[in-house]
């Protein structure tokens, strides 16, 4: 009986193995929509990068390379950019890709209904020169514009209008929420929201296919233990992420492997520094010590980042000195040193600032947003206690966390930032400039750090064409926020993916999983 | 009689309304859906505009009344996460949960009765003692752990059964079924056991104690005295009389099987309404959460109402 059962099971397994080119993978989050212009979130854009394409795309090393545009050059002195489009590109439904589609995709992606609108804030106008030439005019010189549009995906005007989906509709959905028609290497074959999404290679793709997949099936698996079991049992070929605590087990097991890398996301501590009083613990209402840069520096020195990385991140992550990782454009090579771990130095600074006897305050932390976020906050609490300041930790799910930060309910908080443009300017714009809703600056600068020189430098950085001058200004901004200790950057979050041994893939630092680089051996 | 029924129905409606109110009061503590819906680059203006459009700027009582009024017209709103009508999503997901509940119900009832009879007639036997001890473990381990253990044993180590999902399903005009494919049936085994284990133990213990009681009754003794074969005594006479309370309990438990499928569905990534609800909590997808909770409470209240009405039908004293 047992033999019969076992042999039946074996046969069924073999039957499953016969279609090995069907690639199955799992991730925690289902892409909310198949509409590339509706939502600006990593799961959606990462997934749709396999189906839709932009004028430019990012290669394996994150460098921008030609995609639907074969080349681009600046117009005049910082008036904008001219894009020369690739000829002979077809959409999945067979329609030709032309300049009209670029104009349409601009109008759609920059419309009121689109979440990707902010990408086009620098754009003044888009002009169709001829069928294969488009001019994108910017209101100020914008040297990094081509770098910032890798996720702006092209949609066919005719298809969108025929299916009355000329504008995205996030709240009620429309045809493009469940269907897709891009120019990318894969076509959307079947979409069942929250269950499975099936892709098939597009035979008419303009580029040479590197992969050998005949079908790709994505399943969201929320529960990390289930995802790991699915990988170990061979039910899926790849999972992202592998929980850090399971990584060693997946690696040691025959048949599966772990692929480690560094994500673009920097994890940091922020301070409520624009107000006079503390908000939490018995010290609530007392003068706010974090207004003093010496106290913030003491925090930076008190945190033993290496210990956090060794124990909580199990050696997968790298320390951070700035708000971006070294791989990002605009990183200051000259300022790559982190304040050394120095308990005595931290105590001396606190004493100098008049807090030799220590103080207590509230530390807010998410518990399901970043890898092991709550454990990191607990470690931070312990390390701060060693220099005599007592953090009262309050960890909560991310859906409660952002409203708390927005309502200014913290003394210190944990934040992770992944620069959407892969440029140092991005975190400076969102985290370091003085909050200014009208100019859309500092919208995530919850602590209210403010420095007139940074505010002055940012617009100059944004419009500087010369790379050397731009980097010099970026260096100055970096040295300001470092010496002021506006934030305490701790580490760059690791990427931990798991796959079967016979799978070859490329892990990109933006955590996008690009199917066209997958080979099943 | 009629007034009793009307009173009962009105009470049930009141319970439903209160459940909904409590649910909506709790949603205000669940966090803010807005951040999930807007990206990193959203402005405060976007946040305020979307909040006003979804009506989230209003007190929860107002939100609740709006929900009830449109639910009465059959409109459960649109999911924040998927941007599709909630009723449509629930209809897509319901077959998975109902099939799972059905199979685990059958498993719980079948295995529970067989093991219950077995442990009753061999009450001092070694195997019966073993079954009783193991069943104790089954009751005390949380569903989550049992599911993970089964997955590691049968999927990861032995590689006999799939570790997650529903396998291949066949669409029968709006109802997707896993009963018609091998992979669908294989996928059902582990989740059905996980979900039904608790109920099975419950039924087993119930059958056992009822059996032991019945076997002491005079009519069993007389049946034996008449020289009836032991099989007939046990199964025709004794078992039949133990079934009344068992059926009652099993019926009431069906509701909790569907409701508690949430955990099993999460562990096995089973694409049913329970998993949908868990996802909705993470996303703070209020329309989905509200519709699911109302549906489950309608089911529970409905079952209880039915039981009450059946009592009236059976017991003449309640009719006055």
Automatic annotation (TrEMBL), chain A:
Signal sequence annotation: 1-20
Single GO biological process annotation from the record: peptide transport
SUPFAM superfamilies: Periplasmic binding protein-like II
Residue ranges of every copy of the Solute-binding protein family domain listed in the record: 64-431
InterPro entries linked to this entry: Peptide/Ni-bd, SBP_5, SBP_5_dom
Chief place of localization: periplasm
GO molecular function: peptide transmembrane transporter activity
Keywords per UniProt: Signal, Transport
Record localization: Periplasm
GO cellular component, one term: ATP-binding cassette (ABC) transporter complex
Pfam family, one: SBP_bac_5
Family: Belongs to the bacterial solute-binding protein 5 family.
UniProt-recorded name of the protein: Glutathione-binding protein GsiB
Species this protein is from: Pelagimonas phthalicica
Organism placement in taxonomy: Bacteria, Pseudomonadati, Pseudomonadota, Alphaproteobacteria, Rhodobacterales
Gene from which the chain derives: gsiB_2
TrEMBL record, chain B:
Membrane topology (UniProt): Multi-pass membrane protein
Keywords: Cell membrane, Membrane, Transmembrane, Transmembrane helix, Transport
Compartment annotation: Cell membrane
Matching PROSITE patterns: ABC_TM1
Transmembrane region(s): 12-30, 100-121, 133-154, 246-270, 290-314
InterPro entries, per the entry: BPD_transp_1_N (IPR045621), MetI-like (IPR000515), MetI-like_sf (IPR035906)
Domain ABC transmembrane type-1 intervals: 94-311
GO cellular component: plasma membrane
GO biological process: transmembrane transport
Domain of life: Bacteria
Similarity comment text for this entry: Belongs to the binding-protein-dependent transport system permease family.
Full protein name: Glutathione transport system permease protein GsiC
Organism: Pelagimonas phthalicica
């Amino acid at each position: 009986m047992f033999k019969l059962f076992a042999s039946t099971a074996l046969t069924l397994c073999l039957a499953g193995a016969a279609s090995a080119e069907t690639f199955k993978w799992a991730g925690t989050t289902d892409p909310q929509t198949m509409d590339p212009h509706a939502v600006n979130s990593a799961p959606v854009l990462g997934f749709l990068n396999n189906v839709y394409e932009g004028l430019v795309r990012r290669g394996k090393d994150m460098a921008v390379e030609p995609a639907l545009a074969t080349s681009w050059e600046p117009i005049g002195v910082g008036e904008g950019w001219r894009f020369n489009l690739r000829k002979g590109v077809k959409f999945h439904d067979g329609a030709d890709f032309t300049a009209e589609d670029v104009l349409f995709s601009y109008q759609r992606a920059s419309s009121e209904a689109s979440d990707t609108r902010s990408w086009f804030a620098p754009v003044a106008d888009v002009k169709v020169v001829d069928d294969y030439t488009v001019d994108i005019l910017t209101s100020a010189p914008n040297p990094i514009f081509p770098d910032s549009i890798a996720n702006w995906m092209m949609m066919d005007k005719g298809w969108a209008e025929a299916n009355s989906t000329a504008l995205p509709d996030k709240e009620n959905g429309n045809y493009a929420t469940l269907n897709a028609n891009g120019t990318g290497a894969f076509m959307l074959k079947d979409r069942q929201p929250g269950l499975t999404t099936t892709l098939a290679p597009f035979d008419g793709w303009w580029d040479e296919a590197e992969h050998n997949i005949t079908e790709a099936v994505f399943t969201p698996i929320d529960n990390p233990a289930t995802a790991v079991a699915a990988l170990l049992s061979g039910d899926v070929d790849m999972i992202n992420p592998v929980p850090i605590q399971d990584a060693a087990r997946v690696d040691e097991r025959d048949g599966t492997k772990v692929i480690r890398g560094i994500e673009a996301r920097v994890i940091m501590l922020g301070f409520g520094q624009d107000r006079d009083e503390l908000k939490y613990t018995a010290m609530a209402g007392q003068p706010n010590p974090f207004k003093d840069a010496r106290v913030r520096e003491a925090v930076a020195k008190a945190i033993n980042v290496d210990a956090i990385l060794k124990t909580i991140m199990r050696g997968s992550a790298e320390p951070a000195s700035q708000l971006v990782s070294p791989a990002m454009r605009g990183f200051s090579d000259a300022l790559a040193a982190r304040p050394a771990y120095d308990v005595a130095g931290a105590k001396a600074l606190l004493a100098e600032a008049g807090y030799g006897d220590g103080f207590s305050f509230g530390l807010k932390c998410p518990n399901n947003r970043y890898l092991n976020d709550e454990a990191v906050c607990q470690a931070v609490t312990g390390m701060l206690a060693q220099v005599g300041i007592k953090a009262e930790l309050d960890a909560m799910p991310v859906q409660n966390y952002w409203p708390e930060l927005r309502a200014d309910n913290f003394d210190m908080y944990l934040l992770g930032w992944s620069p959407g443009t892969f440029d140092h300017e991005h975190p400076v714009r969102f985290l370091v400039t003085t909050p200014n809703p009208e100019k859309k600056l500092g919208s995530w600068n919850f602590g209210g750090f403010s420095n007139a020189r940074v505010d002055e430098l940012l617009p100059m950085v944004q419009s500087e064409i010369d790379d050397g001058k731009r980097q010099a200004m970026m260096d100055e901004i970096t040295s300001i926020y470092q010496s002021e200790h506006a934030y305490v950057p701790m580490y760059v979050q690791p990427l931990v993916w798991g796959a079967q041994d016979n799978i070859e893939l490329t892990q990109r630092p933006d955590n996008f999983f690009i199917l066209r680089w997958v080979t099943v051996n | 009689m009629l007034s009793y029924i009307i009173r009962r129905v009105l009470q049930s409606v009141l319970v439903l309304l209160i459940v909904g109110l409590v649910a909506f009061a709790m949603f205000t503590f669940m966090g803010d859906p807005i951040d999930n819906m807007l990206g990193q680059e959203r402005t405060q203006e976007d946040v305020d505009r979307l909040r006003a459009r979804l009506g989230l700027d209003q007190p929860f009582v107002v939100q609740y009344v709006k929900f009830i009024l449109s639910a009465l017209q059959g409109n459960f709103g649109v999911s924040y996460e998927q941007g599709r009508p909630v009723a449509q999503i629930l209809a897509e997901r319901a077959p998975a949960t109902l099939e799972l509940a059905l199979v685990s119900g059958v498993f719980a009832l079948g295995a529970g009765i067989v093991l219950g009879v077995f442990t009753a007639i061999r009450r001092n036997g070694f195997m019966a003692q073993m079954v009783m001890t193991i069943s104790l473990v089954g009751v005390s381990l949380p569903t989550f752990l049992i599911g993970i253990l089964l997955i590691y044993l049968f999927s990861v180590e032995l590689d006999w059964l799939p570790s997650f999902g529903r396998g291949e399903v066949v669409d029968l005009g709006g109802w997707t079924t896993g009963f018609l494919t091998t992979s669908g049936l294989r996928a059902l085994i582990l989740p059905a056991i996980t979900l039904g284990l608790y109920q099975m133990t419950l039924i087993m213990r119930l059958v056992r104690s009822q059996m032991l009681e019945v076997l002491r009754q005079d009519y069993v003794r007389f049946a034996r005295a008449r020289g009836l074969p032991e099989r007939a005594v046990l199964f025709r006479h004794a078992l039949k009389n133990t079934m009344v309370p068992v059926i009652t309990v099993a019926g009431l438990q069906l509701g909790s099987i569907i409701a508690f499928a949430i955990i099993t569905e999460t562990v096995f990534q089973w694409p049913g309404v329970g998993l949908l609800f868990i996802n909705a909590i993470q996303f703070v997808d209020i329309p989905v959460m509200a519709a699911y909770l109302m549906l489950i409470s309608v089911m529970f209240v409905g079952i209880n109402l039915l039981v009450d009405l059946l009592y009236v039908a059976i017991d003449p004293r309640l009719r006055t």
